[in-house]
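Need a sequence for this fold. Nothing fancy.
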């Protein structure tokens, strides 16, 4: 059946179906005569199962493991039930505090809000609600991992390549040993750096995300952070080449070492804050 027919039968949107296909959760065949995808009854059943599990909050990675028979549905559902119970407990507690504030018999005013009136031990209360406050403690880390940062790095790389191209020699260094250039490429190679940023974001990042998803919860921000760091390294190497050509700097290892120190320093700070949030 066609994707339009599949939409009508499942009640799912075309974008949902395409997304699940992209994630390899379903594998429709292609009609060799017209090149269109053809969805089977089994695909329709799987789409309904996938959509249902997603409404329970089960992750795409866990669903993929179920589809590939790498996980047991009972265990996945038990794990999700535990996650939901934790979320419900937090929401129920917040609801109780809201009701207590509304039942105080007085008009609520921010200027006169006394936290100790509702929370006996603020320190203990903050510790119990670290999951709700976690983004406040890693805001810089979250910002660095955002798409805007990737756009800025890529645009800077592209502009750097475009502006410097006419001033570059016919060949530029692309490999060094002991501070000396040992391999060269046509100066057009400078445009490979912004292209590399695009490849990292759209081709490499999904692999990073999938690897992290197997080992770490809430991996989206970390995958973005790693991808942006790699783009930052690409930009640094591009700038180094320009400075090397102008004989301003000679050792690329200095640039890469500085990038690595920044990366692991910020990553360690963020992970440490995350660990503190879970205590």
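Here you go.
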């Amino acid at each position: 059946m066609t994707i339009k027919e599949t939409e009508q039968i499942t009640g799912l949107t075309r974008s949902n179906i395409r997304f699940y296909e992209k994630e390899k959760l379903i594998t429709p065949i292609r009609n060799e005569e017209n090149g269109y995808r053809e969805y089977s009854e089994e695909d329709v059943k799987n789409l309904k199962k996938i959509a249902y599990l997603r409404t329970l909050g089960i992750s795409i990675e866990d669903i993929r493991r179920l589809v590939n028979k790498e996980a047991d549905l009972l265990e996945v559902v038990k794990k999700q039930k535990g996650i939901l119970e934790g979320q419900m407990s937090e929401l129920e507690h917040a609801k109780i505090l809201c009701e207590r504030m509304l039942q105080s018999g007085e008009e609520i005013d921010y200027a006169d809000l006394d936290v100790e009136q509702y929370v006996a031990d603020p320190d203990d209360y903050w510790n119990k609600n670290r999951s709700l406050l976690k983004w406040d403690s890693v805001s810089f880390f979250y910002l660095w991992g955002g798409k805007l940062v990737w756009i800025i790095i890529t645009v800077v790389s592209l502009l750097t390549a475009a502006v410097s191209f006419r001033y570059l020699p016919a060949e530029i260094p692309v490999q060094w040993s002991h501070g000396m250039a040992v391999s060269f490429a046509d100066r057009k190679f400078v445009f490979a750096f912004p292209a590399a940023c695009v490849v990292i974001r759209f081709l490499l990042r999904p692999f990073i995300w999938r690897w992290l998803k197997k080992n770490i919860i809430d991996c989206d921000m970390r995958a973005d952070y790693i991808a942006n760091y790699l783009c930052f390294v690409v930009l640094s190497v591009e700038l180094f080449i320009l400075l090397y050509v102008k004989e301003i700097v000679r050792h690329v290892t200095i640039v890469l070492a500085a990038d690595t120190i920044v990366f692991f320093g910020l990553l360690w700070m963020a992970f440490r804050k995350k660990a503190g949030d879970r205590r």
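For context: Residues 73-128 form one domain.
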